[in-house]
Design goal:
mainly beta, eight-stranded antiparallel β-sheet
Length: about 300
């Protein structure tokens, strides 16, 4: 028998159930339940909507993640900020333009399956989503996301095909990193690699030097095995992936930000998206009964 959310929280003194109205009082939306995680190593906030890590602050350090001041905290909404999980497709649906961008996992309620403090003093939370075949995605699957929150965060995805035939799944951990000024940010580790430029309609180019952000940037790099580094003035962050061969770099730029309701004019300057996953030519094929696993880790320095 699976423990209820209240049972797990009652056993875990590092967990507290709160809500978006308390933590984000100026944001729009009808309101969502949120979990607060407080340990000697870090403070974090998790939305069960989408199993989405919204906040991560190492004790004595700076906030890692960005949440839009226009993020809409409503049931079934796509939350603009933190680490959304785009699954089982990334970007537009591969065959049906009426389906939502970036899949269904980020807008569904996930179950908290387990939580504990491990031997290294890190909070470990496991969340699960069960999908029954429907008009949006015609295969049964279950997804589990395990968050390990210590001095830095690690996210592990396990995707199981419960249907009788194989399916393709593209996905990314769509991380919004808080930065001091997007115009000063550099992404290192992609020099010389080919990318698909979504701003240019998917045309392919070769990266020269670090990625910089003078306007809208939306690029997908494939078959990237090594970590990439975010250089933001006095802070450097490494974003590594195990079985996460795709890297996406994104920022709306000023013009598009002003047109996106849940970002808003001028708010693009405070974030950069550097995402790990498997999309385009890296897309997973998941056989019937198969479980595929991947991990993204973020480290400082």
């Amino acid at each position: 028998m699976t423990d209820s959310l209240s049972d797990i929280i009652a056993r875990c003194d590092f967990l507290e159930l709160t809500d978006s109205a308390s933590l984000y009082p100026h944001n729009p939306g009808t309101g969502l339940a949120l979990l607060q995680i407080n340990t000697p190593k870090c403070q974090a906030t998790l939305a069960l909507n989408g199993a989405q890590l919204m906040r991560f602050t190492p004790t004595g350090g700076d906030e890692l993640l960005w949440v839009s001041p226009q993020c809409n905290f409503s049931e079934g909404a796509s939350l603009r900020g933190g680490i959304p999980l785009c699954l089982p497709w990334f970007g537009p649906h591969p065959s049906d333009s009426n389906q939502p961008n970036h899949g269904i996992a980020r807008t569904q309620p996930w179950d908290l399956l387990a939580a504990h403090i491990d031997e290294q003093g890190r909070a470990r939370l496991k969340l699960g989503l069960q999908h029954q075949a429907d008009a949006q995605f015609a295969h049964d699957f279950n997804a589990e996301l395990t968050l390990t929150l210590g001095d830095t965060p690690t996210l592990e995805l396990a995707l199981t095909n419960n249907s009788q035939s194989a399916f393709n799944a593209s996905w990314v951990m769509h991380t919004y990193f808080a930065v001091s000024d997007i115009s000063q940010v550099r992404i290192e580790g992609l020099d010389g690699r080919e990318y698909a430029d979504k701003v240019a309609g998917g045309a392919r180019f070769t990266q020269s030097g670090p990625v910089t952000f003078a306007g809208e940037v939306d690029r997908v790099y494939e078959d990237i095995q090594l970590p990439v580094t975010i250089d933001d003035h006095n802070r450097r962050l490494q974003v590594a992936g195990n079985a996460c061969p795709s890297v996406v770099t994104w920022n709306t730029g000023a013009e598009l930000a002003a047109k996106v309701d849940d970002i808003g004019p001028g708010n693009h300057t405070g974030y950069v998206c550097v995402e790990r996953g498997a999309c385009l030519n890296d897309t997973w094929q998941v056989a019937a009964g198969e479980t595929r696993r991947a991990q993204m880790s973020i480290t400082l320095g």
